[in-house]
Amino acid sequence: MTDFDTTIPPTASPEVEFISLSHLNPSTELEPIPTRGIDLKYFRRYVRSLEEGGYDYTLLPYGSGSADSFVTASAVGTLTERIKPIVALRPNTTPPTVAAQKLATLDQLTEGRAVVHLISGGSDAEQARQGDYLPKHQRYARTSEYIDVMRRSWTEPAAFSHEGEFYKFDGFGPGFAPYGNPIPISIGGQSDEAFAVGGTKADIFSFWGEPLADLRSEIDRVHGLARDAGRSTLPRIWVTFRPIIAQTDELAWRKAKVYVEKIAANFATVRPQLQGTPQNIGSQRALAFANRSELYDRALWTRTAAVTNAAGASTALVGSPETVAAAILDYVDQGASLVSIRGYDTLADAVDYGRFVLPLVRQEIAHRKATGQRGSLQAEHLGNYRPEYAQFASTP
């Protein structure tokens, strides 16, 4: 990157909002604590830190052995005034009419802050733990029908009946209505079925952090499907990273190397069941990027994905707050308007991102709105576009 063009790219999103993931106790991938419980004091402190740090959303994850995402989302709504709780929901766990009722209730209690992220299921073994034996292609077909029933449950003014491939009921409704605007529905995944459902029906499509050019082609794909379906409003793009920051790029790399050794050792000990070839395409894709190179673009590091077998969102952005903020803006320039950043030292990282990264990105967005041009942050903090950065990354 020798000549920086201040012209705002035509693909750039004019806005960006930030997402975190809510953690219920102090256990981390750096320092695992054997617990399945909720540390209420910690949870309150964590959620309060998100509010104070200026995050817009927080994701409440779901797993067969974890806390219930609806209940924890309701707690977030009570503990905050502004944060929008995102309920991670697997369609096999809750009938769509009941999910619509629960989400509308959350939306009423939070005065319009509810969001839902539908997880069709990437692992047959995890789905089977709760009695779901549908093959993957049918799980996405079920998600498609699920969205239709939920939306109708929120909007149908009279009782209605339904008979589809996966759901049948008689005389439901009118259902409990959301607070005001429709509740946003998010979809993620890398399979053809995920793109088909997300492109035609989702309000938000979620990606893990990928090299810029690869992500741009995926955005084009999902938006193309949306246009083919006759949609006038395209899905918003959500991209997730695990930033590792320090005062300078060199210090950030020292920190990253310590982190990855701990993460690798703990993953092998704590999550041995996730070894082997992953079933979901997103993890396969992340591992393919990691095998091809450890470093991409300004600051994308794939080693963290490699040592965890890409079990979930795991690609990092490494550098100073300025370098990481500039890298986030690179993704905003590709069309991302929702950026999820969550760390490995979960609470401390959430605080640091709020203090040092979010303000830089928002300052640049404000500059663009005021001037119609890109500011200097991306031109001045080049990260991997300068040779010293790669030297920091490669130094033992």
Features:
globular, 396 residues, 46% helix, 14 helices, eight-stranded parallel β-barrel, single chain, alpha/beta
- Count of helix runs: 14
Widest β-sheet, arrangement of strands: 1-2-3-4-7-8-9-14
Compressed to H and E, one letter per element, the order equals EHEHEHEHHEEEHEHEEHHEEHEHEHHH
Which structural class matches the secondary elements? Answer: alpha/beta
Shape: globular
What Rg, in angstroms, do the CA atoms define? 21 Å
Tell me the total number of β-strands.
14
The end-to-end distance, rounded to whole angstroms, is 26 Å
Helix content: 40-55%
Low-confidence segments, given as residue ranges, are none
Average pLDDT confidence is 93
Major β-sheet annotation: 8 strands, parallel, barrel
Strand content is: 5-15%
Keywords: Flavoprotein, FMN, Monooxygenase, Oxidoreductase
Protein name: Alkanesulfonate monooxygenase
GO molecular function: alkanesulfonate monooxygenase activity
Domain Luciferase-like: 34-337
